Amino acid sequence: MSAQASSPEAIGRPLALVVRLLDKLEERGVRYCHWKSTTTLDLALTGRTDLDLLVHRSDAVAFDEVTRELDFKPFVSHESRRYPGVEDLLGYDQESGRLVHLHVYYQLLLGQQYVKNHRLPLEDAMLSASVRRGPIRVPPPELEVVVLALRTLLKYRDADALKDRLRLGRRGGIPPETLRELEDLAARADRAAIDEVVRHHLQGFPLDIVPRLLDLVGDDSRNAALLLELRARAVDALRRYERLSAWEARRIYAAARLSRAWPLRTVIRGLSRRETRRKSPRVGGVGVALVGIDGAGKSTVIDAITEWLAWRVNVAVLYMGSARPSTTTRGLKLVARAARAFGRRVSLPGARRAADLLTAIRYLWDARDRRRRADEGRRLAGRGVLVLYDRYPLPGARLGERSIDGPRIRQLDGTAGSRLLRRLARLEERIHRRIAPPDCVILLRIPPDVARQRKAIPDPEGAARKARALETMDRSGLRLVEVDATQPLDAVVRDVKRAIWGLL
């Protein structure tokens, strides 16, 4: 399971947002517990892995009220990871700057990847027997180890058995973190109590399956023959708890696997396994442009925001300037630059006209690049992605006769006397008019003299003009957030996080 980066000093100390959440749940009498992976509970409490909370279905409304009060926001999983009775919430712990992911279950679903075909009737047993461990409620180890044993067997694939039979790779079919959890729970659980849990709550389930799996973990965790035997018996005994028919479960699993496999994933532009683990805001995707003069820290802030969110949120970054052209535009740029250098050295009248024409064509392709990226960002946002734009053409921010990152052909010296250049200029302007504004613009404000102290700026006068243009731009129709970029980087990132969190 991937996790957010965290500072060493924060490890072991529960996040303030997590503590407030758990305290409020206790105050409101909400029946809940952290139902799995309690061996690594400290990672969940510090926001580095999910908080997997089982909540009593009768307390769903009270739970929603608590999470809304704490500004947790609902997010949607990829369709292959979306199950009934399970939801995702993200919260922003402002003290640490980290996200908190609540994976909330109103019923116990487990089983094969992409399907989760079994619903176990153990919710009431877990919740009624839960106890406080530090700030959070957890089930007794006997209940948790039974559920983990069943999860382990149901997830064990034929491919895992083949690897275990041939002793391929360092990892066995059972992941190392699962083995550690089984060993920890087996050491804490009472074997007689495990039998009682199975006998009382899973009537008819063979009593020997869980103990034999626990013995295997400590003896030979790559015993494929025994694992396949235990899996087959467990699947047969759990048939009455299946949500879907066996055929439907196999179809869903096969479709999910195929959509992630090369070359089909390339053909259908499917998401990678890492991407499907990420979530989208329930309110939909959004496009956010960060603008400012050179030295304001746009790229640095975008990198920090991406690292913050991409742990669990679908994020894409698109550069909207001209410094990273497409392959075609890069070639045109080199040719136009060579033509202008040649035109300055010779006195042939046609040389400068040719240089202007080639430069105009290069500017036109710059505009096509911008529109293509803007269209891509709009489509991504429509699919639930948070799109971060590094720079953006803003018609209201004027540098004399043109806008920042806007059309440039009319500024060429030869445009007034060339009908062809004027036509190209109109075409460039038409392309820019078709670029829709972003959903939000975050302006990183910084005086040019402060920016020069941070970064070498080759054109200080141009930076000063751009700063004035951004300060005085027409803001009508824009959702604009201003951030003081003269602050230390941590403070700038904090303010940008707060602005973006308000959009999700």
Briefly summarize what is shown:
Helix content is 48%, strand content 16%. The protein is an alpha/beta fold and 504 residues long.
Descriptive account of the structure:
- There is one protein chain.
- The chain has helices at 16-27, 41-45, 60-69, 123-129, 141-155, 158-166, 176-188, 191-201, 209-219, 224-237, 246-260, 264-267, 273-276, 298-309, 327-345, 349-382, 419-433, 448-454, 460-471, 489-501; strands at residues 32-34, 51-55, 73-77, 86-93, 98-105, 108-110, 118-120, 131-133, 136-138, 279-281, 286-291, 315-319, 386-390, 394-399, 402-404, 440-445, 480-484.
- Helix 16 (349-382) packs parallel to helix 17 (419-433).
- It has 20 helices and 17 strands.
- The protein is of the alpha/beta class and 504 residues long.
- The strands form five sheets. It has a six-stranded mixed beta sheet. It has a five-stranded parallel beta sheet with strand order 12-13-11-16-17, with helices on both faces. Strands 6-7 form a two-stranded antiparallel ribbon.
- The model is unreliable at 5-11 (pLDDT under 50).
- The two termini are 24 Å apart.
Features:
48% helix, 504 residues, five-stranded parallel β-sheet, alpha/beta, six-stranded mixed β-sheet, 17 strands
N-to-C CA distance: 24 Å
Estimate the strand proportion.
Answer: 15-25%
Indicate the percent of residues in helices: 40-55%
Report the mean per-residue pLDDT as an integer. Answer: 90
**What does the main sheet amount to?**
6 strands, mixed
- Gyration radius (Cα, Å) is 29 Å
Low-confidence stretches: 5-11
What general form does the structure show? elongated
